[in-house]
Amino acid sequence: MLASLTPLTSMYRLRSESLRKAYSKHLLADSLRRSDLELLPSVSGCKTDPRSASSHSVSCWGFQSRWAAVLSSACQFRSAGNTRRQTETRVQIILSLPDWELSRRRQLFDRVREENPDFHQKIVPISSELTQPGLSISAADVERLTACVNIVFHCAATIRFDEPLNSKLSANKHSETLNFSSPTQSHSCSTFTSSTHLVPSLSLSLSCRHALQLNVIATQQLLSLAQQMHHLEAFIHISTAYANCNRKHIDEIIYPPPVAPKKLIESVEWMDDGIVRDITPRLIGDRPNTYTYTKALAECVVQQEQDKLNIGIIRPSIVGASWQEPFPGWIDNFNGPSGVFIAAGKGILRTMRANNDAVADLIPVDVVINLTLAAGWYTAVHRPKTALVYNCTTGNINPFHWGEIEHHVMSSFKRNPLEQAFRRPNANITSNYLINQYWILVSHKIPAFIYDLFLRLCGQKPQMMRIFNRLHKAIHLLEYFSNQDWEWNSENMSMLMGQLTPEDRKTFNFDVRQLNWPEYIENYCIGTKKYVLNEDMSDIPAARQHLRKLRNIRYTFNTLLVVFIWRVFIARSQMARNIWYFVVSLCFKFLSYFRASSTLTN
């Protein structure tokens, strides 16, 4: 059965400020981190009098309290059919029903559920298609959206690094919008948010979601719809800090595109897949993949409408687990660094090509959310004449390096090990290609071959070589980013922080100077264990016992290997025996000298 992609957009008027805060920030968190199925929401608010948005005295939280929250999300369905009914069912399950399989995702909405248990009943799905003219939304639904929406948060994008530039989407791919509007609301205003993926994924699935169509054409479609919205105050586009990764210093400006988006789209329309595949390397030039290339084009598309719309662009770097909200370490997928951390914690990933001294520009998901919400407020209230770009990064403000990540991740997983680890956690990061290939052979391929041989002897299907091959392909896609440094200007991010009141700075905290990296990495690793792998923290003693067994197996194997080498090679050669005795005697002399030196010192 074919998978289909269904973005959802929702509007929901919230009367409680505390409920609105929990709802808006937590749903947007789910939007920015989810990418594998069902619901991917993001949120803002809705005010009753759009004309008052020009008042510069309105605080960010005051602005939020006057707007009804809006949800935009994305769903995947396994097959075509009644997508509206399927959407309603999935939304109800994710937000309300007590299904233990969805418990990890539902924790995100616990606070909202406690304060308003029936809030999910106000969700109304609207079927649409992001790649079709007018988004294929019915006239009645277009009228509802154009009459109510105040802010658009556009997060939808394909995040596969190796996505082809062209391909027609399958007929069963749908987008949907969810309206969170009160049934008693006569003329409410809200926001529209499109969101699919934000973080680069390690998934290598053969999907029909393609970079040019969803990163560029879909952006054009949403801009076209946004221009029809009578009460629109701001259009916030989520890009990536790596859209201009071909530059070492990246300012908060929109750089000229490598090619005019309109011309590229027109050209690709008449080319077959083979031609596009052949010219793709020349098109992307010094960029590493189609993801960064098309995100740069999308920024240009958004900029072209800055005379008609109030526009803001958010550029997050590598989005990781939450820092503070909804709780430290919240994460529920394998995207970005999460999959790498889990592979290292399981003992599968033993080596990675990265520069230990290079900055690993991680950004917590709740920091991105808080900055996005604050940017929506600033754009709507202050109405900048040109599109403001916010580089949402940590490297220049609170740097953290790949070598430090290796140390803290390994230390964390040794204290809080994952269950049923393949080997003891111990990863080696090196920037040297030959050393990396040596460790891949010794620590990846040979153990995988031995394990698969053992599985064959037991009558089971071999799997480790296949797993390692997929892991190597995924890690290879990240090498460009883990071996280089970039310098991002973050003046607009600092400016926005200065515009917030002291209370708003606490509510919408995106001050990464306060981020304690060792504590964050510890919570991140625990989050992958609890929320991604669904492992119970009470089982840590058993997991530690499993690591001790793996250690004993390793010691036994090494001992047997030494005995084997001795019997086969050293015992049969006089020269080898002489060399062996010389090395052993040298070691004993060194130990004797060391002991004598210690005695004299004492």
TrEMBL record:
A UniProt-annotated Pfam family = NAD_binding_4
Keyword set, alphabetical order: Lipid biosynthesis, Lipid metabolism, Membrane, NADP, Oxidoreductase, Peroxisome, Transmembrane, Transmembrane helix
Gene Ontology BP term (one): wax biosynthetic process
- GO CC annotations? peroxisomal membrane
| Protein name, per record | Fatty acyl-CoA reductase
Ranges for domain Fatty acyl-CoA reductase C-terminal come to 444-535
Which transformation does this protein catalyse, written as a reaction?
octadecanoyl-CoA + 2 NADPH + 2 H(+) = octadecan-1-ol + 2 NADP(+) + CoA; docosanoyl-CoA + 2 NADPH + 2 H(+) = docosan-1-ol + 2 NADP(+) + CoA; 18-methylnonadecanoyl-CoA + 2 NADPH + 2 H(+) = 18-methylnonadecan-1-ol + 2 NADP(+) + CoA; 24-methylpentacosanoyl-CoA + 2 NADPH + 2 H(+) = 24-methylpentacosan-1-ol + 2 NADP(+) + CoA
Q: Which family does it belong to?
A: Belongs to the fatty acyl-CoA reductase family.
Residue stretches spanning the membrane: 555-573, 579-596
Q: What does this protein do?
A: Catalyzes the reduction of fatty acyl-CoA to fatty alcohols.
What's a Gene Ontology MF term here? alcohol-forming long-chain fatty acyl-CoA reductase activity
User: Where does this protein reside within or beyond the cell?
Assistant: Peroxisome membrane
User: What organism is the protein native to?
Assistant: Gambusia affinis
The cross-references to PANTHER family, in alphabetical order and at most eight, read: FATTY ACYL-COA REDUCTASE 2 (PTHR11011:SF120), MALE STERILITY PROTEIN 2-RELATED (PTHR11011)
Q: How does it sit in the membrane?
A: Single-pass membrane protein
N-terminal signal peptide: none
InterPro entries for the chain = FAR, FAR_C, FAR_NAD-bd, NAD(P)-bd_dom_sf
Question: In what residue span(s) does the Thioester reductase (TE) domain sit?
Answer: 181-371
Q: What is its EC number?
A: 1.2.1.84
